[in-house]
Amino acid sequence: MHNLTSVQGQFFILVKFLIKRVISSRVSGLKTYVGKNLLFYMLDETPAKDWNPDNLLALVQQSLDILVAMMESSDSEDVCMRHFFLRDARVFLKRDHDSKSRIVAAVRQSADNLLSDLKPFTESLPKFSVNVILLSFLSYYILSVELLECSDFSFTKHVSTMNTATELCLSIRSEAPVGSRSGRLTQLLLDVERQIPDTAQVGKAYIRAAALFKMGQLVTPELEGDPAGASLAIFGVRG
Predict the structure, then answer these.
(1) Where is the Mab-21-like HhH/H2TH-like domain (predicted)?
(2) Of 13-17, 163-167, 235-239, which gets the smallest average pLDDT?
(3) What is the count of structural domains for the chain?
């Protein structure tokens, strides 16, 4: 479980949420342990290249289809699925569960309506605006400290760079829609990046990350190896 990729971890969280909060609110019978078994079946059957953010919902839907198929493959009213680790064993439904046909129907309902069923989950997540404000504060602080430690960076250059960084961070924190200001944000980011020396790469990466997110550019696979992309990932901001 500790070696899961970020997408595999997200998959597991979503499947557990659907079983515990959505399907179980409609019918009684599924144990949360079912989610762990589904995870390992999916890890066993899904090529590594398919574990990417674009496929996340399709993978969740596929796992629910597997669950339906396993429930329907057994004539026993109490059997839910085959145990992943003990293939001769079975995972059973809860005691006093609803009819298996009702449980199957509830799982199918979630598989067919993933976006609406996952809406309560997405609404419970912290709002991105909080993340970007925290990131802009942190980036400003790190940049200031790094510039002070640059022995060959003059006081005049320090003041000029921090003035531009201040304007950029204030623009990032603004509640105003970004559409009409994206050009200004881009220019400010380019200006401050040109002024930051190579010895202040961490602050540069963080301030770039905050600006990119404010402009709606989330972390993409191309940014995964980039310091700015790593900064966004730390704050839970991903594409």
Answers:
(1) 20-107
(2) 235-239
(3) 2
Per-residue 3-state assignment (H helix, E strand, C coil) for the chain: CCCCCHHHHHHHHHHHHHHHHHHHHHCCCCCCHHHHHHHHHHHHHCCHHHCCHHHHHHHHHHHHHHHHHHHHHCCCCCEEEECCCCCCCEEECCCCCCCHHHHHHHHHHHHHCHHHHCHHHHHHCCCHHHHHHHHHHHHHHHHHHHHHCCCCCCHHHHHHHHHHHHHHHHHHHCCCCCHHHHHHHHHHHHHHHHHCCHHHHHHHHHHHHHHHHHCCCCCCHHHCCCHHHHHHHHCCCCC
Q: Do residues 51 and 119 both lie within one domain?
A: yes
Q: What is the pLDDT of residues 114-160, one digit of tens each?
A: 888 988 876 665 544 446 677 777 778 788 878 887 877 888 888 88
Residues 204 and 192 in one domain: yes
Whether residue 144 is found in the same domain as residue 183: yes
144, 106: one domain: no
What would the two tokens of residue 68 be? 């339906």
Do both 40 and 117 map to the same domain?
yes
Claim to verify: residue 114 and residue 146 sit in the same structural domain: no
* For residues 223-227, average pLDDT: 46
Name residue 203's amino acid. G
